[in-house]
Automatic annotation (TrEMBL):
<protein>
    <submittedName>
        <fullName>DUF3108 domain-containing protein</fullName>
    </submittedName>
</protein>
<feature type="region of interest" description="Disordered">
    <location>
        <begin position="385"/>
        <end position="424"/>
    </location>
</feature>
<feature type="compositionally biased region" description="Low complexity">
    <location>
        <begin position="397"/>
        <end position="407"/>
    </location>
</feature>
<feature type="region of interest" description="Disordered">
    <location>
        <begin position="59"/>
        <end position="170"/>
    </location>
</feature>
<dbReference type="InterPro" id="IPR021457">
    <property type="entry name" value="DUF3108"/>
</dbReference>
<feature type="compositionally biased region" description="Low complexity">
    <location>
        <begin position="59"/>
        <end position="146"/>
    </location>
</feature>
<dbReference type="Pfam" id="PF11306">
    <property type="entry name" value="DUF3108"/>
</dbReference>
<feature type="compositionally biased region" description="Low complexity">
    <location>
        <begin position="154"/>
        <end position="168"/>
    </location>
</feature>
Length: 424
């Protein structure tokens, strides 16, 4: 019996040993199989480090080329792109996580990088193409310098700022026919103020044609032509000086013929004469008040044909002032010409309460200031234009006859200009 019991215990011990051996083999086999998915763990961690280190300098690359750098990225991008990359400690701790979690973290990190890089690249490209304000030069205009439908200029030598309004493209509305009279005074250094003959602006328009007569600080001027949505389109301008008439003609083929030898520049629709300038400024305010009221710091540009040149004129909006007139104190926007030192400077006050009409004008030259201030304002009745008349505008400037008539427009021959008495 003891021998049989001993044999039984031996068999049980052998079975336990065999079972332990089998368990050991199974555990060893499992242990041998477990490192297989963890084998790429070290390269994965290295891959993460290699991806994140140049992230600020490289654009997002395809999966098969994660290290390709984009030389077009700005140099300022690394500082901001680094904010989207985890710290090195976080990368080190991620290497101990399961492979699936590491892959998810890697995908999230790769998605975060291009978002920040794109934000930094956008403003860099925008600033490179920005054009600063106030880059338009003053001076005479080249041929073909003006767009249709405006009072200013834009051309090859007259580049405009794209963040702002293009010079000359203003919304306008013609003022109704009116007769304005002004009290005129002259102020000179070390001299008492002197009262001069009254000034006037006589504006007649039937909606298609206009006739304008000006006598005052601007001189003795007449203008006739077409009027419409584009504003005033002069056909003939006359300046009377020292018993002579200096005639500027705006021909049907789109040219401005100056007095003297008849030389001039292409008109291209939009060039004013000196008589129409104040009323064109009024038409800009009447067409859209914001063009003047919100133009502080941005000049209003118009092109004006004088007796010897076509010149771009800039007017800065100086602000809203109260002007004492015979009709009472009127709030008016003051526009100041940005004239070169030593040249005459024109100032115009436009009153919104009076249809943006000029209630005061002033020309200052050599310390002498001639000022005309509104005395009376009389609205006029002008018969409507015949239905067959074509409105002036577009390429058909010559189709609208001036109120003076075609024969009268060509009656006066241009005469030499007295350059010594050139006004503003």
């Amino acid at each position: 019996m003891p021998a049989a019991r001993l044999r039984r215990h031996r068999r049980l011990l052998a079975l336990c040993a065999l079972s332990a051996l089998l368990h050991g083999l199974v555990l060893r086999w499992i242990a041998a199989q477990a490192p297989a998915p963890a084998t790429p763990r070290a390269p994965l961690a290295d891959g993460l480090v290699l991806r994140l280190a140049p992230a600020g300098l490289a654009a997002p690359a395809p999966a098969d080329a994660p290290h390709a750098a984009d030389p077009r990225m700005p140099t300022a991008a690394p500082a901001r792109a680094a904010d989207a990359v985890p710290a090195p400690d976080a990368v080190a701790s991620a290497t101990g996580a399961p492979a699936q979690q590491q892959q998810q973290q890697q995908q999230q990190q790769q998605q975060a990088i291009p978002l920040d890089t794109g934000d930094t690249a956008a403003p860099a490209g925008a600033s490179a193409g920005a054009i600063p304000d106030g880059s338009l030069p003053d001076g005479s205009l080249p041929a073909g310098a003006l767009p249709a439908g405006g009072a200013g200029a834009s051309g090859p030598a007259d580049q405009a700022d794209p963040a702002g309004p293009v010079p000359g493209r203003y919304r306008v509305r013609m003022p109704p026919p009116v007769l304005l009279t002004y009290a005129r005074t002259r102020q000179a250094p070390a001299m008492p103020d002197r009262r001069l003959a009254d000034a006037r602006i006589d504006w007649r328009s039937d909606g298609r044609r206009y006739a304008l007569s000006v006598d005052g600080v601007l001189g003795r001027l007449d203008s006739s032509g077409a009027s419409g949505d584009a504003g005033m389109l002069p056909r003939r301008a006359v300046e009377r000086r020292d018993g002579r008439e200096l005639v500027t003609q705006f021909t049907e083929d789109g040219r401005v013929l100056l007095p003297g030898d008849g030389a001039g520049a292409a008109d291209s629709l939009g060039v004013l004469d000196r008589a129409t300038l104040p009323l064109q400024l009024a038409a800009i305010g009447l067409g859209e008040p914001d063009q003047i009221e919100h133009a502080l710091g941005r000049p209003i540009e118009v092109a004006v044909a004088g007796t010897d040149a076509v010149t771009r004129m800039r007017f800065a909006v100086a602000g809203l002032e109260s002007v004492a007139t015979a009709l009472g104190a009127l709030p008016a926007w003051r526009l100041v010409q940005q004239a070169a030192p030593g040249q005459a400077r024109l100032e115009v006050w436009l009153a919104p309460e009076r249809g943006w009409l000029p209630v005061q004008l002033r020309v200052t030259e050599g310390g002498v200031a001639d000022t005309q201030t509104l005395q009376t304002l009389q609205m006029l009745q002008v018969p409507a234009a015949p239905a067959g008349d074509a409105p002036g505008g577009g390429a058909e400037r010559g189709a609208a006859a001036g109120t003076a008539g075609a024969a009268d427009r060509n009656a006066q021959e241009p005469v030499p200009v007295d350059r010594a008495r050139r006004r503003y």
